[in-house]
Amino acid sequence: MTEAVNPLLTRSTLPYELPDYAAIRTEHYLPAFEAAFAEHLAEVRAITVVRSMPTFENTIEALERSGEMLDRIAHAFYTVSSADASPGIQAVDEQLAPMMAAHDDAIRLDGALYWHVSQVHDQLDQLDLTDEQRYLVQRHLREMTHAGAALDDASKTRLTAVNQRLSTLSTTFEKNLLADTNALAVVFDDAAELDGLSEGELSATARAAAERGLEGRYLVSLPLFSGHPYLASLTRRESRRRIMQASLARASRGNEHDNRAVLAEIVSLRAERAELLGYDSHAAYVTADETAGTPYAVERMLRELAAPAARNARRESAALQQIIDETEPEPFPLEAHDWAYYTEKVRQARYDIDTAALRPYFEAGRVLRDGVFFAATKLYGITFTERTDLVSYHPGARVFEVHDEDGSAVGLYVLDLYTRDSKRGGAWMNPIVSESALRGTLPVVANNLNVSQPAEGMPTLLTLDEVTTLFHEFGHALHGLFARVTYPHFSGTNVFRDFVEFPSQVNEMWILWEEVLRNYARHHETGEPLDAGIIARLRASEKFDQGHATSEYLAAAWLDQAWHRVGAGAEPGDIAAFERDALADVGLLSPVVPTRYSSAYFAHIFSGGYSAGYYSYIWSEVLDADTVEWFRENGGLTRANGDRFRRRLLGVGGSKDPVEAYRDFRGRDAEIAPLLERRGLDR
Q1: Nearest to 563 by CA among 267, 303, 288
Q2: 40: domain range?
Q3: Same structural domain, 129 and 226
């Protein structure tokens, strides 16, 4: 396939180099990758054959210039493979996975390249480098060493084989999960079975059924996590049970989509790789190059939080059981599928808040425009203009151009809001084009959510949780949009995994900030603002149900650590038994509070980038809670505060040690007290 017919082989001429998705076909991807692999290897060879002494310019900067075509094609492809994976795209992904792993190893394990990088690193004190350049040298040496560049040839050969197999298994895990999640979507014959859902929610289930050819029926698709937003509203207990049962069964039913053998092999191979690289476990390997440093630091934190979280969850469980005993004609023991429903009853009784009644005030377009964008404009001075002339990777994805207050370009923001069978579960941000002064590119970033799409003409009304997700993911987008670095290695969210969630969690603070909430929380029909009394009660209830929320999260984080502390050669045995033993060990084994992700559908750690790193959400929340306190102490939603946060944290991308960047912003290290107070764990 020639350049003339493959649009991936040349830089896009669209604004901001947005990939020309209208011209790209599935059959373009593999030939483009093959050409890009060859070009990248040639560029690296050109570095290693230089006979003169390695310098920053002929080694590190040349390395940063290399692989531009591959980065461009990979960003374009992986955006589609996660958000709109047709069978053809899935086939490409499966074929590509081992190829990409082999190519990555060919670069990272290249002994000649490692020698050149080491030589530059040895000269650091004699070189006249900027802080970013100096840190870049240190990171390249550290990352190549961490990847195994110093190993002998036999170990490198085995490591490469392990990495290729792991890449294939991760792709298989995600494919199995997507297929079984679609297969287990719950079909209801009668609208009465979904009593409690709003008109918009019911229309979304009818639309989903119709798209599957099930006219006149209702289909409830499953989110990535163990529960479901509808469990809080459905009055029929059997309907709630069916949904929860389907969710918990995903990819562990003994069919062709069963992930248990897949994840067991992943765990075994990751442990073997860690041993090859000189570590006791995969968790030790991962945390060695994160801010945590060791799995023992992670364990200390998780154990410290688990006991009060479980204690609070038990108190909450007792309160729910009491309301069942007092209100149900035939009381029954509380089960996991009952938790959200009766939690809403307790919330209404205690705080006079009906979260379902809030949805008419959270129309998606208004939340985006008058909430998410409004807060960003107030803080950072940026503006958003929708570019309907630009075609993204899916017709439902909207494109916005972002400008600074002075009119200068910031980048493009893509929002893909709705769920579909071809999209993986959960919510995420990813770059489509990475910013780099060296390459002359500005950022294009995408946010993906999985909101149910109502019938044509019906408004999209979000739950409070979905509003939170939108603000959260936009925090990642701001990180990607604002980072201004020279070298692509540091672009956007290319930071330590246990730091990356920090900016996104900070952005959640504006959801209930009075000036922001007053602007976006208006009834979609009347325009009436959300009642001030309800807002006050929402703030008063922020710690409500935190025992449950914290416990289910910590259980998943602990499960991740347990899987990845398995040593080389150890057999995990029965998956369900392994889970039970791990959760019992930390005091979080509870039938009424299941882990947020059970192993067979724990995509974050078995097909995503969070293996041995799911703890990063709570680790980053220490910084987040401390930062929220700083904003409150310094006047909140002001340009001065936004500019400081942008300049000292978001704007540096990965070009500075994140702990140092935080100290530069805050003036000291983060303190844990605000987190404990926020989650009600200080009692």
Answers
A1: 267
A2: 7-108+110-150
A3: no
